[in-house]
Amino acid sequence: MRYAPNDLENHWMPFTSNRDFKNNPRLYTKAKGMYYETHDGRKLADGSSGLFCVPLGHGREEIARAVYEQLQTCDFSPHFQVGNPNSFMVASKLTRILPKGMSYTFFTGSGSESIDTAIKIAMAYHRAKGQGQRTRFVSRERAYHGVNIGGVSLSGMVKNRETFTNTMSNVVHMRHTWMPKENGYTWGEGAHGVELAEDLQRAVDTFGGTTIAACFVEPVAGSTGVLVPPKGYLKRLREICDKNGILLVFDEVITGFGRLGTAFASEAFDVIPDIMTMAKGITNGAQPMGAVSVKDEIYHTINSASPEDMVEFFHGYTYSGHPCAAAASVAVLDIYEREDTFAKSTKLHDYFRKKMMSLKGMDNVTDIRGYGLMCGIDTKLSQLQGTKVTYANDIHVKFTGPCAIVAVPLVADEGFIDEVTDKLRLSLK
Ligand SMILES: Cc1ncc(COP(=O)(O)O)c(C=O)c1O
User: Which residues line ligand 1 (CB under 6 A)?
Assistant: First the structure.
């Protein structure tokens, strides 16, 4: 297929150098297994699982069939005072992999919507408990919590924030946990930096613990370049939250569904949050869908604050629990369970780590870190240079600024990891 520049002009692309792209298009027209095919017929190894959302690889027939059949059976159903069985099935299946006591799930259409939903759940919960004065939120520098106003307010990546200055003003940012001098080229949790969790204590000491509603963190900060927390850091955040009645929210949009080898990062780090946001792997990227799971006490507290014939939580999206997205999710959760995807993927962890770390020493590489099947490689390239050079070398890798974020599908094998490493090596020369 050929595209004249005018065919591309009208789409204002997200997070893209639009003018450059339209002079120099990179279109993915087909996807199967662990490969994309481009408009000019080249095959690209998918080194980032799309945007970290295709753990089972592309084009799984079972998922496609579930969506197609759902489209023919009941293409859309609202979920305001009525419902469709599929989303109930997803919520109930999720309880099998969520931490115990976290058995209620609210559906959204994306990770960004999940974050804004979690912010509102935290507000509603405290208000229901008579603690409406808890209006402050704590998050972290270099955090990525999506692009809606709530999520941008929590986020800590400068380019995503500096244009949009009038966001939520009641957010305090802890320091990020990247310590290149102390923890450079470390795989897994760094030995140094647990004291960074005391930034939450400082917020408590400065503003008063009773004014803080929730602390949001990505267990491993993903989009900013895979920043793994130091040993003991998340446990310490949990302690400070417990002591001060602050809700701990884990944004598991990337870390959820096996990326670290467990269903959720919560299990990998043995820390249970009060609220968990997710998206991406919930449908293997085949349909837009997000979710927010909460501890039972949060659901019951919000519900019991109003009479039984009232709407308890005035929030929801037209596409909350969309039947086709939910059909995809049921199929995906079935595959994860039947194929034991998360546990099986851990057999690749060591190999992936070794291959990624083998890029250390290249002139263009300044740091490498990771956990499970997720790796951040800091380079001397710009985002656009990195995107172009990897594309030219037949590999898809998501760059955030100069950092290449590698996240192979959970169903990859050693041969595929070799291919990704070789193509990266070539690109980073
Ligand atoms: C941790 C985290 N939260 C939220 C989001 C936003 O998700 P979405 O792009 O589906 O809105 C992302 C996206 O990458 C993410 O990585």
Answer: 110-112, 115, 144-146, 218, 222-223, 251, 253-254, 279
